[in-house]
Design goal:
This protein is of the alpha/beta class. It has helices at 3-24, 41-60, 80-92, 104-120, 154-166, 182-198, 219-228, 240-251, 268-272, 290-293, 301-310, 317-333, 339-346, and strands at residues 28-34, 69-75, 97-100, 127-130, 147-149, 173-179, 203-210, 232-235, 257-260, 280-284, 350-353, 356-360, 367-368, 371-377, 390-397. The chain has a 7-stranded mixed beta sheet with strand order 7-6-8-9-10-14-15, with helices on both faces. A 5-stranded parallel beta sheet has the order 2-1-3-4-5, with helices on both faces. Helix 2 (41-60) crosses helix 12 (317-333), helix 3 packs parallel to helix 4 and helix 12 (317-333) packs across helix 13 (339-346). The N and C termini lie far apart (57 Å).
């Protein structure tokens, strides 16, 4: 046997051995702690599908370090105590990575429990990846080395709204109406401070809070909006509270615009129905018609693929970004166990994602990205939930413009 032939055979055998090792390597598991039962389960179900899609895309291209990713779903049922119990389950299963975002209060409870656990158990730490809890404090006063947020928080989005309002002089009178909990109060306070600074001439003609998820008839609130003379309503409402509010507005003949944070959440466009046409605006990190508007047909595949696989529109692109950045950090580190090095690899990372340039600030672990303000209209390529209407960009704020000073004073592991 020639030396050349022997070398080739050895190389083939080595490659086969490596392939066999890669195939037999255990998956890298990701704990997904979110709400999969109860009144807000539909949102948890949608984000679960998006996470599975993100993992599918990574596994399709070979996984991470030759290993597949695998999602382990853990239901917190919308309860903070159950979420903390699910963190214990994550640790017991020796899972190093956890994702969550369905509720800012739950995120805060998880973060507190996680910090205590990681301090006491340096050999069994967990990294917390958050794809969109809105409260700024999570990367401000509560910022933590083990926590990364991949979606712009509420205050960053409010600056995008302020820029939109500043460029639209037809907006003169804003009515604020929000659910009566921490996020709703943040939206109200920040709107007055941030929009008020961008447009000192703006009049805030109402500032209403209502019980969360308990109002069945919003007509008394709509009457107040009508009497105020508002041309625009700004609301952090989501779910049924948002749908009922907009429909009551339409029924009363009110023609105000509704600038929302969550008008595009799964099921909301369907619940709003025809009442949303030309009326509802949303703040988002992406929407299915963005690549059509930008003449980038190769990016439309994400919407088409997701819709074909799950029967829903792609909404939570921050989850796709999150998993791509985690994969890159693990590959740079070379293992899944050294969470300090993986966290440091995420710090300062920049990603030219299909959805725009993403930057993870090292100082507070807060991502920045482009922010869209979209209007629900007819005549676009991709409908929202088959309504015959879909989202159209009316403003786009570059990621660099959403970066805000931070008060974070992060403690780092020694």
């Amino acid at each position: 046997m020639s030396i050349f032939r022997a070398t080739c055979i050895a190389a083939v055998m080595a490659c086969s051995a490596l392939a066999a090792v890669a195939q037999s390597a255990p998956p890298i598991r990701i704990a997904h702690i979110d709400t999969f039962s109860g009144p807000t389960a539909s949102t948890g179900t949608t984000v679960a599908k998006t996470l599975l899609y993100a993992v599918h895309l990574i596994n399709e291209r070979g996984g991470v370090l030759g290993r597949k990713l695998e999602v382990v779903q853990l239901d917190n049922a919308g309860d903070s105590n159950k979420a903390v119990a699910m963190l214990t389950s994550t640790v017991d299963q020796k899972i190093n990575f956890m994702v969550q975002a369905g509720n800012s209060g739950i995120a805060g409870s998880l973060l507190t429990a996680l910090d205590k656990h990681n301090q006491r158990n340096p050999n069994a730490r967990v990294l917390f990846l958050n794809y969109g809890s809105a409260l700024p404090d999570l990367t401000e006063s509560k910022c933590n080395f083990w926590f990364f947020r991949f979606e712009a928080h509420q205050k960053m989005k409010m600056h995008a709204v302020a820029e939109y309002v500043a460029n639209n002089p037809d907006i003169k009178k804003i009515y604020l109406i929000n659910q009566d909990y921490s996020f709703g109060h943040e939206v109200s306070a920040d709107a007055k401070a941030i929009i008020g600074k961008a447009r000192p001439d703006i009049q805030f003609v109402g500032d209403e809070f209502h019980p969360f998820g308990k109002i069945k008839d919003f007509s008394p609130y709509v009457l107040k909006i009508k009497q105020s003379g508002a041309d625009t309503v700004l609301t952090g409402n989501w779910g049924n509270d948002l749908a009922l509010l907009v429909r009551a507005s339409k029924d009363s003949g009110l023609s105000t615009k509704y600038i929302t944070y969550y008008g595009g959440l799964f099921g909301v466009p369907t619940s709003i129905g025809a009442a949303g046409e030309n009326t509802v605006f949303q703040i988002s990190s992406w929407h299915p018609n963005a690549p059509v508007e930008d003449k980038m047909p190769e990016l439309e595949k994400y919407q088409r693929d997701f819709k074909a696989k799950f029967g829903e529109d792609l909404y939570y692109t921050s989850i796709l970004v999150q998993m791509d950045m985690l994969a890159k950090a693990i590959e740079k580190t070379g293992n899944t166990e050294d969470l300090v090095k993986i966290a440091k690899a995420l710090e300062g990372m920049e990603l030219d994602s299909p959805f725009g340039k993403i930057k993870m600030r090292a100082q507070d672990h807060q991502a920045s990205h482009p922010i869209y303000i979209n209007q629900l209209v007819k005549g676009v390529k991709y409908d929202a939930e088959g309504l015959g209407m879909g989202w159209k960009t009316v403003a786009k704020v570059p990621g660099d413009k959403t970066i805000l000073p931070t008060t974070c004073k992060m403690e780092r592991p020694s």
